[in-house]
Design brief:
Layout lengths: L4 H4 L8 H15 L5 H5 L18 H15 L7 E4 L28 E4 L8 H16 L14 H20 L5 E2 L10 E2 L6 H15 L12 H25 L1
């Protein structure tokens, strides 16, 4: 028994080395896209607060528009062709515009616009709505990349979520990273909605820690906004990211 005691206090990593390496590779790939450089350089940690998402509306479509506009603002995409597709509207194919540098004012009134759909039942659940918008925007940014992402086959939704983390929305993505119904129950058959998630909470906790490390953001700024079950995973992720950065630095020396 005594020989087993040290192992009782050794923490198993939340993610396997291959998953951590792939997340880091996707971050490196994103940073290498010249068309995204200005966008990614100016992003910051977005928090689910009234300061970052001010404004209220009396109905769901107007509230969705307010949140959508704030997401674009935080992502540095206010001059992009992204538009909100309200319920009942037509939805464009998930392809991005020709160039990130083309202002909306220089396009035709409807040509080249990229519509982002949403489920109206997500509107009362602000973090899920923010996560949904950021993921859908990132998904439509992917075709503008100059090179294919690492291990891109069958992983497009996962890569989109990692890009959304790099746009600053990691807190909301991690907090809502589960396939759970909201605003409904099986017995009453009430309305429900789902925020589809590709990555696990542990994946997104690591990605959020990596975002903070690479942007020089103290992890303590993100931790208070994470759901309680996520805080331990995030603390461990911060340590793993620091160890990985040290290893990379030693290897480059």
């Amino acid at each position: 028994m005594l020989t087993l005691l040290p192992r009782l206090f050794q923490r198993a990593p939340a993610l396997d080395p291959e998953s951590r390496a792939w997340i880091e590779a996707v971050f490196d790939w994103s940073a290498a896209q010249s068309g995204w450089r200005r966008m990614l350089d100016q992003v910051h940690l977005v928090c689910p607060t009234a300061e970052h998402f001010p404004g209220r509306a009396d109905n769901a479509p107007q509230m969705a528009q307010i949140v959508f506009d704030r997401v674009l603002e935080h992502a540095g995409l206010t001059d992009s062709p992204f538009r909100l597709a309200h319920a009942g509207g037509l939805m464009d194919n998930p392809i991005a515009w020709d160039t990130l540098a083309t202002p909306v004012a220089e396009t035709a009134p409807t040509a080249g616009l990229v519509r982002i759909p949403y489920d109206p039942h997500l509107v009362p659940h602000s973090e899920a709505l923010i996560a949904h918008f950021s993921r859908e925007i990132a998904l439509r940014l992917l075709p503008t990349a100059e090179h294919s992402a690492p291990a891109a086959e069958h992983n497009t939704p996962h890569i989109a979520e990692l890009l959304a983390v790099q746009l600053g929305f990691g807190i909301m993505l991690a907090n809502t990273a589960f396939h759970a119904r909201v605003n409904g129950c099986g017995a009453c058959k009430g309305p429900s909605a789902e925020r589809e998630a590709a990555l696990s909470r542990d994946d997104l906790a690591y990605a959020l820690a990596l975002f903070c490390q690479r942007k020089g953001i103290p992890p303590r700024r993100a931790r208070p906004y994470l759901n309680a079950p996520l805080r331990t995973a995030f603390r461990h992720a911060v340590r793993d990211v620091a160890r990985s950065a040290q290893t990379r630095s030693s290897g480059a020396a």
